[in-house]
TrEMBL record, chain A:
Record-linked InterPro entries: PsdUridine_synth_cat_dom_sf, PsdUridine_synth_N, Trub2
Organism of derivation: Zophobas morio
Gene Ontology terms, MF aspect: pseudouridine synthase activity; RNA binding
Name of the protein: Pseudouridine synthase II N-terminal domain-containing protein
Superkingdom in the source lineage: Eukaryota
GO biological process, one term: pseudouridine synthesis
Recorded family membership: Belongs to the pseudouridine synthase TruB family.
PANTHER family per UniProt: PSEUDOURIDINE SYNTHASE-RELATED (PTHR13195), PSEUDOURIDYLATE SYNTHASE TRUB2, MITOCHONDRIAL (PTHR13195:SF0)
Domain (Pseudouridine synthase II N-terminal): residue spans on this chain: 98-228
Automatic annotation (TrEMBL), chain B:
GO molecular function: nucleic acid binding
A GO-annotated cellular component: mitochondrion
Broad class of the protein's primary localization: mitochondrion
Family membership noted in the UniProt record: Belongs to the mTERF family.
Listed name of the protein: Transcription termination factor 3, mitochondrial
Database matches in InterPro entries: MTERF, MTERF_sf
Record bears the keyword Protein transport: no
Keyword terms, alphabetized: Mitochondrion, Transcription, Transcription regulation, Transit peptide
Source superkingdom: Eukaryota
Subcellular location(s) per record: Mitochondrion
A Pfam family annotated for this UniProt entry: mTERF
Length: 304, 352
C-alpha cells in the first residue's frame, strides 16, 4: 500500500464491501472479523502522534517556565490503540443464515447508508441450493438427524424440470397479485407491460426463476432467482420439492451466487480479509454502484 | 492563613502516612521524609521550613507573595490512567518498559493498586530481580502487564520459587523460558507448582526428564486450569479413543492441544478420522493436525478430492502426509502439494 497515513485510509472507508461468507459462520462473526481486521490494519499504520502537553511550572510570583512536551495522557500505550473496534460502524445489507454461504454486502462507516438503501430497494438475489433425495431431516438441513427415508429411483430429470416450471409459473401469478394495485386496473396493465415486478410487501418471498442445473440422483442442484427469501424458506422449498416428487429431500448447501450486480467474482475470500484487500474491494464496489444508479435510487416497481 | 497553609501542605504530603498532631513533630518528620522519598515537591519542603523559622503574623488582606501554586484539589477519581500519567513518575517508568496500561483498566482491582506504588521503592527491586534472571526489557513489560500483582509477592518468596525450580534440576535457560512464557508462574506458591507438576507426572505417567521438557516447552500448560485439562484428557481418551500411552505421546508433542477448546478439537478429529478415514495410529504420529481448524483441513481435503489426488497411504507413490496438508500458505499448498494453481484453489473455495 502506497499510503502510509492511517487517517487517510480511515476517511476512505465510506462505501460497501463484498465478502464471501463461509458456511457455518454467522453474519455477526463475519462482521466482527472484518471490523477487527480493519482496526488492526489501521493501527499498524502511521497513526496520529500524541498531542502536545503544555506545562507551566515555577513560582507564579517570580518566574514561570513554559515547556511543551508530548502528552502522555494521549499515548497509545495509555489510552489504547487509535482505532478502536467500537468506533467502526459496519452493517450488512443482506442477511445470510448460519448454513448459507456466498456473497455478503457489508457497509463500512458511511457505507452503512448505502447498505441500508440497497437492502430497502430489495434487489434480486440468485442462489444455488443443493439437495439430496431419499432422506428428510428434522430441520431440513444435512446436519440434523434423519427422520424419514424413502425411495428416489422413480425421479427423472424431466419430472423435476416439470415441477420447477410449474412452481415458477404459480409464483409469477402470485407476483402480480402482490404488487399492491388492483389487477383489473390500467396501472396493473402498464406495470405488467414492463416485465416482472417486485412485490409491495417486503416479507413475502417471490421466486422469479427456478431451474435444475445439476441432477445426479440422489443429489441435485437448483438455481433460484428470488426476492425476500430467507434461509428457512429455501430449506422448506427443497423439502417441498421432495414431497411433490413423491419422495423426501433435504438441503445440503445454500450458496448465494449473486446479489444485484455483485457476483462471486467480486467477493472477498476469508483469507483475504485484510485492510489492503478490503480497500481494493471497496474501490471495485464503488465503481459498480456508480455504474448502476438504480442500486441505491429506484424509480419504478419493475424488476431491474 | 499561614497556619492553614502549613496544614494544607502537611495534609497533602504527609496525610497518607500519619495523623497530624503538632507542628514540632511535623518539622522533624519532614526532614526524614525529605531524605527517604521523592514524592514530596522540593519547593514545598523548603517553603515550609522558611515558614517555621520566622512565622510572620500578617493580615489576610495583604497581597500574597508565597508560592501557593501547589495548593490544588486532589485528582478526581478517573476511568483510566490518562488522568494520572503526566504527573506520576511510576506510571511513566512503566510506560518506558512498554506496559500497555489500558489493558489493566479491564480489571477493576489493578488501577488502584498500581497507583499507590512508588517506582523506586516498590518496583525497582523486582525489575532488578527479573533482569538478573535474564529477561529483556520487552519481556519485562509483557510480564508486568500480564501479572501486575507480582509486586505484591515478597522478593524472598520469588527467590524461593526460582530455587525450587533449580532444586528440581531445571536449567537456567529453562527457568528463563518459563518466566518469559508464563508471566503468572511466579505468583504461584511452591506447594501449588509442586502439586501441578505432580498432577502432570501422575496423570500422563511421565518421567522426570519428560516433565522438565514439557514444562520448558509449554510453561503455561502447567498453571492452566486443571479442570479444563481433565476435560480435554477425557475427550482425547474416551471420546476419541486414544490409549494412555498414545495420550502421553500427544502431550509431549503438542502440549497446546490440552489448552484448546474441547469442541473444536473434537470437530477436527471427527473430520480427520471419520471423513478422511485416517486411523488413530497415524494421528498419534502427528498430533499437531488436531490443532488445525476444521474448515482449513476440510477445504484442502475437498480440493484434493476434486483433483483426485488423495493419497494417504505411505506405501504408495504421491503420498501426502497430514502435516504437509495442513501446514504452509494456501499458495504453497495449491502449487506444491496439489500441483494446481492458487487461482484454481481460490475459485474452488468460492464453490463451498
Amino acid at each position: 500500500m502506497l499510503i502510509k497515513d492511517a487517517p487517510v485510509i480511515w476517511d476512505s472507508l465510506r462505501s460497501i464491501i463484498c465478502v464471501y461468507k463461509p458456511p457455518n459462520v454467522t453474519c455477526q462473526r463475519v462482521r466482527q472479523t472484518i471490523i477487527t481486521a480493519v482496526c488492526t490494519g489501521l493501527n499498524e499504520m502511521e497513526c496520529r502522534p500524541p498531542m502536545d502537553y503544555v506545562s507551566i511550572e515555577g513560582n507564579p510570583s517570580t518566574q514561570l517556565t513554559v515547556t511543551v512536551k508530548p502528552n502522555l495522557a494521549d499515548h497509545p500505550l495509555v489510552v489504547g490503540p487509535r482505532y478502536q473496534i467500537e468506533d467502526l460502524k459496519c452493517s450488512w445489507s443482506n442477511y445470510l443464515g448460519l448454513h448459507s454461504s456466498g456473497v455478503l454486502l457489508l457497509g463500512l462507516r458511511n457505507g452503512t447508508k448505502a447498505a441500508k438503501l440497497i437492502r430497502e430497494n430489495r434487489p434480486t438475489r440468485s442462489y444455488r441450493v443443493s439437495g439430496r433425495f431419499g432422506e428428510a431431516t428434522e430441520n431440513g438441513f444435512k446436519n440434523e438427524k434423519v427422520v424419514e427415508r424413502s425411495t428416489y429411483k422413480h425421479i427423472k430429470h424431466a419430472n423435476i424440470n416439470k415441477l420447477l416450471a410449474a412452481m415458477q409459473a404459480s409464483h409469477q401469478k402470485e407476483m402480480f397479485k402482490s404488487c399492491g394495485v388492483d389487477l383489473q386496473s390500467q396501472t396493473a396493465y402498464e406495470m405488467a407491460c414492463e416485465g416482472p415486478i417486485r412485490p409491495a410487501d417486503s416479507k413475502l418471498p417471490v421466486i422469479y426463476g427456478i431451474k435444475c442445473v445439476q441432477f445426479e440422483p440422489p443429489d441435485f442442484v437448483i438455481e433460484i432467482q428470488c426476492i425476500n427469501e430467507y434461509e428457512t424458506y429455501l430449506k422448506s422449498l427443497i423439502h417441498e420439492i421432495g414431497a411433490k416428487l413423491r419422495s423426501t429431500a433435504h438441503c445440503t448447501g445454500i450458496q448465494c451466487i449473486r446479489h444485484s450486480y455483485f457476483t462471486l467474482e467480486n467477493a472477498l475470500l476469508r483469507k483475504h480479509w485484510t485492510l489492503q484487500h478490503i480497500i481494493t474491494n471497496m474501490e471495485e464496489c464503488i465503481a459498480i454502484i456508480d455504474e448502476h444508479e438504480n442500486l441505491v435510487k429506484q424509480k419504478k416497481a419493475a424488476l431491474q | 492563613m499561614l497556619r492553614r497553609l502549613i496544614k494544607t501542605c502537611t495534609v497533602r504530603t504527609l496525610g497518607p502516612f500519619r495523623p497530624l498532631s503538632s507542628v514540632q513533630k511535623i518539622e522533624n518528620k519532614i526532614s526524614t521524609v525529605e531524605n527517604s522519598s521523592e514524592i514530596i515537591d522540593p519547593r514545598l519542603v523548603s517553603n515550609s521550613d522558611n515558614l517555621n523559622e520566622n512565622p510572620p503574623e500578617s493580615s489576610v488582606l495583604q497581597p500574597c507573595k508565597e508560592d501557593i501554586s501547589y495548593v490544588a484539589p486532589y485528582l478526581r477519581p478517573s476511568f483510566n490512567f490518562a488522568a494520572y500519567v503526566n504527573k506520576s513518575h511510576t506510571l511513566q517508568q512503566l510506560l518506558k518498559l512498554g506496559v500497555r496500561l489500558y489493558k489493566w483498566e479491564k480489571n477493576q482491582e489493578v488501577p488502584p493498586y498500581i497507583l499507590q506504588l512508588d517506582f523506586d521503592k516498590d518496583i525497582k527491586s523486582y525489575i532488578i530481580f527479573l533482569t538478573d534472571l535474564g529477561l529483556q526489557t520487552e519481556d519485562l513489560g509483557k510480564l508486568i502487564e500480564k501479572n501486575p500483582f507480582i509486586f505484591k509477592e515478597d522478593l524472598e518468596n520469588l527467590q524461593v520459587r526460582i530455587n525450587y525450580l533449580k532444586y528440581k534440576k531445571f536449567t537456567d535457560e529453562m527457568i528463563l523460558r518459563i518466566v518469559q512464557d508464563n508471566p503468572m508462574w511466579l505468583s504461584f506458591s511452591t506447594q501449588d507448582i509442586d502439586k501441578k507438576l505432580g498432577f502432570f507426572q501422575k496423570s500422563f505417567s511421565l518421567t522426570g526428564n519428560e516433565v522438565r521438557s514439557l514444562t520448558a516447552r509449554k510453561p503455561r500448560l502447567i498453571t492452566y486450569d486443571i479442570e479444563h485439562i481433565k476435560l480435554n484428557m477425557f475427550v482425547i481418551k474416551e471420546e476419541m479413543g486414544f490409549t494412555p500411552e498414545e495420550m502421553k505421546q500427544i502431550v509431549l508433542q503438542t502440549p497446546k492441544l490440552f489448552m484448546n477448546n474441547q469442541h473444536r478439537i473434537l470437530k477436527t478429529f471427527d473430520y480427520i478420522h471419520k471423513e478422511m478415514n485416517i486411523p488413530l495410529e497415524t494421528i498419534v504420529k502427528m498430533p499437531q493436525v488436531l490443532t488445525c481448524r476444521e474448515f482449513r483441513i476440510k477445504q484442502r481435503h475437498q480440493f484434493l478430492q476434486k483433483l483426485g489426488k488423495l493419497q494417504f497411504d505411505t506405501k504408495k507413490p504421491n503420498y501426502i502426509s497430514l502435516i504437509t496438508l495442513v501446514s504452509g500458505s494456501d499458495a504453497h499448498f495449491a502449487t506444491e502439494v496439489a500441483g494446481s494453481s492458487i487461482h484454481a484453489f481460490n475459485a474452488f473455495l468460492k464453490t463451498m
